[in-house]
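Marked as duplicate of an earlier ticket. Keeping the data here for the record.
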Amino acid sequence: MTTQPSDAEAVRHWWRTSIIDMEPGRIAFRGHPIEKLIGNVSFPQMIWLMVRGDMPTTDQAALFETALVAGVDHGPQAPSIAAARMAATCGLGLNNVMATAVNMLGDVHGGAGEQCAELYFDIADRMDAGAGLEDAVRDGLDAWRAEHGKIVSGFGHRFHKPVDPRAPRLMALVRQAAAKGTVSGRYADIGEAVQAELGHQRGGRPIAMNIDGATAVIFCELGFPAPLSRGLFCLSRSVGVLSHGWEQMQQGGRNKGPMPPQYFPLYEAKDDDR
């Protein structure tokens, strides 16, 4: 005879979590009492602890933090930032302003880091199967394009040509971390090999590794699964979203659209309109 759980047990077992243990007078994250975390861990360490379940070393947290810092903002020409500022002029609160922007971070704008990490992991798998770096990169790019099209996420930038100023600095920090043994440097090799191969395929014209390509190197080096690259980017970019939303609130303005009111979108008449 099967024993049915009590109502109290059924409620208690409705959600299961190893993230937080909370009851009146007690809060513990991943087994760490909150009062021992406050004042003793940094915000990047706290993000790592919550997502991964363990505490990073000081050097791991420092490298992780560089990726979070690098991605905070790229100005109002970024659709998510523009949307946040427009939302602020519509009278929304900061939480709604931030949600408006974060909800726009999709596959095209915001998802490139995840896609690039998937490419890096695929190339690493090919190397594990016996391919050399150059062959793994070429085959990985061929497979990528067959599935996703010609644009390779993490490389190229509509403004920063041929160098995205964020990427070289991040890659230098990865190399420093690899020299200390904090990371292997394997994904830095892969990322730079992809960049070189893309330049070769462009007839020798260099192409920028952009912020997504560089942060994907860091997240892969630190062992974060590819989907977390997007979530971590959302955390990072939320800082810029908050800043722009708050600034727009201070500047004022009502119902600001995507272009000044004296300009109108182009009307394209159809044949049956004439």
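See parent ticket for discussion. The radius of gyration is 23 Å.
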